[in-house]
Amino acid sequence: MRVVLDITRLLRRSAQATPTGIDRVELAYARHLIGNRQYKDRTAFVARVRSSTWYLDADTVSAFIDTLALKWKQSESRVTRRELVAIENFLDLAPGTLPPVDTAPALRSALPDMLPPLKRLLSPVNLLPRLMRRRNSQGAVYLNVSHEGLNSINGVRSMVRGHGLRPMYLVHDLIPLTHPEYVRPGDAEKHETRMRTVLASAEAIISNSHHTLNQLKSFAERSGMAVPPSIVSPLGVEDEFDTEEAPPPPAHPFFLTVGTIEPRKNHLVLLHAWRVLVEKLGPKAPKLIIVGRRGWENENVIDIIERCRKLGDHVLECNRLPDVHLRRLMKQARAVLFPSFAEGYGLPLFEAMALRVPVICSDLQAFRDIAGSAPCYLDPIDGLGWARAIEEYARPDSQARAAQMRQLSGLWMPRWSDHFSIVDRIIDVVARPTGTPRPVAGWRPAASSERSRPLIPAGEHVEDVRALCFAVQPHSSTR
Hints:
alpha/beta, Rossmann fold, seven-stranded mixed beta sheet, six-stranded parallel beta sheet, about 40% helix, about 10% strand, disordered C terminus
């Protein structure tokens, strides 16, 4: 079994100080393939630049991945003491409650330099000769988990046929097609091409939720295309999001919202709800910390944050926050808020739930797929409903919050090991040579020892096991 992982996105994004969600996913896949003995000497990496496919030396890729992961980890410590003090003062915490991650914030110049590993990675010595490329790739599973480079159906088809690859793709979302108003002009057309490429060339598709898979099926039906064999394997929560005891809450109740400040995340409904709460409760109104970088078309939100005097003492914008401090603040918050209009998955929501922190969120199928009935679900445009729920959860004797805490105590969220336990089995099936005996149509992957519920089949049953994939039931004891 050979696997070829496309790391084009990681190469392109390696100059950035912090990763996006998709960057984290591709990095997790690279580290899994490098560190898993099952794939030792059977993993290759490719990058596609200007219609050319470059095969990369696995050992040098490993050094590149380690350096990139270290760089992104150390970037957390670049938050200044002034920024941490602002949070402490906002919440009336004791000085030093949020200490720097390191003894001193890392300057950009002190972060690991990506240029040396990039030069080694792309040097002629480490690029496989043209003859070896075809020989080593014949029959390999080509894995693309970032949507990168799928804008050309002919380009992907040429690569797959020319190198004898069997493509598998991870589909994150179809938001540019279902909600084009929340993406940049032209992104909807690009994403349509990506999804057509996936449908036309995949031997298997991984989706992060049933919602994403259902949207892909709807798109395929509208486009008159068949859906290749597909599975649902929820993305994993990092092991750091454990359930250790929460620190004492501050005297004044507060809430968190986590996500890029952009129209789709719907920060506007929270700010209007907070205005209602401040007008009603005055200084006793709860506080809100907005954690996330500024995105695009957010002028209305920024104007309210910067210029609304009523909210000045009750809303704080925090553009960057180390994960260790984010986890601490999550545990101290009355709830974490997610008023999004659309999501493909919503990993921060599930990270909050893994910490046993109550969640108030939009009533989206993507959230319900895994979170079940535990969160408090609201319509994203119901501003007064959000204000009422926040006021209720802010009370020290809140019955609604206590009820959700009881549900969270019995909830188990998927880890990366669970995600890969499914993906590895599908890779094994897709990689089998033509003519190899296939399992029967009722075959199921073995349940992980860490999984709380057994796997169940989803979609149509097909006799060809190359076209046999199964979806994972939400990892939740609430259903």
